[in-house]
Amino acid sequence: KAYASFAIANNEPNRDDFEASPAQQPKAESLYDGELGYQYRSTIWEAGANFYYMYYRNQLIPTGKINDVGTATRTNTPKSYRTGLELTAAVRPATWLRIQANATISRNKIIDFEEYIDDYDSGEQILNTYKESDIAFAPGLIAGGTATIEPFAKLLKQQQFYVDIIGKYVGRQYLHNTQNESSSINPYGLCHLRFPYTVQNSFVKEVGISLVLNNVF
Fold first, then answer.
1. What are the φ and ψ backbone dihedral angles of 188, each rounded to 5 degrees?
2. How confident is the chain (217 residues) per 10-residue block, as mean pLDDT?
3. DSSP for the chain?
4. How many CB atoms are closer than 10 A to CB 209?
5. Whole-angstrom Cα distance, residue 156 to residue 29?
6. Is the pTM of this model over 0.85?
7. β 188-199/141-149 pair status
8. Exposed, middle or buried: residue 182 (CB in 10 Å: 0-12, 13-18, 19+)?
9. How far is it, in rounded angstroms, from Cα 164 to Cα 156?
């Protein structure tokens, strides 16, 4: 199936935003989201792709700016956007094995960002401006995959035992909107193991227990 959508969302500032910026009242955020996607499914495998473009007007973000009593404030940035491609796939090559994978490749930018830094010598704040800087905590690549194995698929009746091998990768995340690599989280990968076991019987529909080992490497 193929699909397309366009949506508009608006979000009012919260109480803290109004209290922290009495002199310059914050404006409501607006989001315009366009998406275009395609999905295919057969008896053995399936795959999908979704392209999105999210354009923000007056997105509220922390800039480092403080008010007259020293409280950090969120400030409207006139224009910012998030755009990217989401990919999903799954295949069952055998009755006892299923493999799933997903990835999001994105670009998350503030078109004109103003950063405020405290100058303790003068007691004022220094203003720095940036063009097309990355939005904080918005990695450009997120990927994951799961391999589900059912080793006793033909032996167990009214019982199910699985082994899930789960992998995850997260790209670089900046702690601020300045795209400064010295203030960032390095790309990292994780691997988890999960062992679910369920039993179906006459007095309850299903009983299950699961053992999970996180970050095994």
1. -145, 160
2. 98 85 82 98 96 94 71 82 97 94 96 83 85 89 97 80 96 89 94 94 87 96
3. -EEEEEEEEEE---HHHHHH-SSSPPPPEEEEEEEEEEEEE-SSEEEEEEEEEEEEEEEEEEEEEE-TTS-EEEEEEEEEEEEEEEEEEEEEEETTEEEEEEEEEEEEEEEEEEEEEEETTTTEEEEEEEEEEEPTT--SEEEEEEEEE-TTTTT-SSEEE-EEEEEEEE--EESSTT--GGGEEPPEEEEEEEEEEEE--SSSS-EEEEEEE-S--
4. 9
5. 55
6. no
7. unpaired
8. exposed
9. 18
- Render 41-82 in DSSP notation, one character per residue: E-SSEEEEEEEEEEEEEEEEEEEEEE-TTS-EEEEEEEEEEE
Token pair of 108, please?
Answer: 């998350």
CA–CA distance, 151 with 164 (Å, rounded to integer): 11
Amino acid 57 reads: R
Tokens of 96: 């006892």
What is the spatial distance between Cα 56 and Cα 109, in angstroms, rounded to a whole number?
10
- The backbone torsions φ and ψ at residue 182, rounded to the nearest 5 degrees and listed phi first, read -70, -15
Q: What letter does residue 186 receive in the DSSP assignment?
A: P
Identity at 209, one-letter amino acid code: I
DSSP state of 181: G
